[in-house]
Amino acid sequence: MQNLLQCDQDLLQTAVYRLKAKAQSLNFGRYLYQLQNASNGDQVNSSCFWLKGQSMREDGFEHAQQGFLQELALYQQWSLQRHSFLLPHRIISVNQLDHRQLIQADHLHPQLLLLPHAESIFSRDSNQFNLSQIKALMIEIVSALAQLTEFGWLHADLKAAHFVRYQGQVRLLDFEQAVPIASAKRPAMNATPRYMAPELFHGQLKSVQSDLYALGIVLLEWLTAQRLQAHTYEDWAVLHCQRLTIDLPQQFIFFEPILRDMLAKQKTQRMRDFSQIKMRLISENV
């Protein structure tokens, strides 16, 4: 069972716990702690772990609670299978920890998700890579997503922060919004507007093509080193449905055709799935 995280039980009792959740996450009752051996100080390295918990207080966290519980259930299910897109993990009980270490421990769900530290793939400037390296990275990314879809799931919340590298492999994070591809009922409006495909703004259901579009936005922002800008939900809708342009720097112009096919405004004009992207990348010479 390669997906189960090997973690010394003593670390859970002796580690220094630091609350690292963003303000927005705290607004939804999400608590993210960094666990580190006291001797390592503030250095983040392979001995660092992340502990994810959810407040279960009855004060408007219902949607976040449902997402957290779904992610726990998926990790429990997937831990018995071999998935290279998944980080090794453990689901632990609050009772296994020193409660004095956890802020808001009395309000947390009794189970927490423990994950190892992994480097964000898109934290490095794209200009540090040559075309062959970027192409290889894109093949790794779409291979991970192809495996997820072949297993029957959409990630449904793709963004740059959800791609990491661990032990030399691309892994995916955060499955709170993941939905079965075969599901007849899928919420359309719980995605992040920055990465939403045009059809989602019109109330259509999430699909492989909407995940493909979200990845296209991630890659577009990385290769251009520019974040898309909009202030309101309506502004995001206009941007994605009407105003989005694909204008890569000259050194990355090789990837412009494939991005255009990922970011087509009509989902029927996008590529079929992540395997098709992979085959196209493999077949084209840099």
From TrEMBL:
TM region(s), chain numbering: none
Gene Ontology annotations for the cellular component aspect, listed alphabetically: cytoplasm
Pfam families xrefs: Pkinase
Single Gene Ontology MF annotation: protein serine/threonine kinase activity
SMART domains: S_TKc
Domain Protein kinase as annotated: residue spans: 17-286
Domain of life: Bacteria
Name of this protein: Protein kinase domain-containing protein
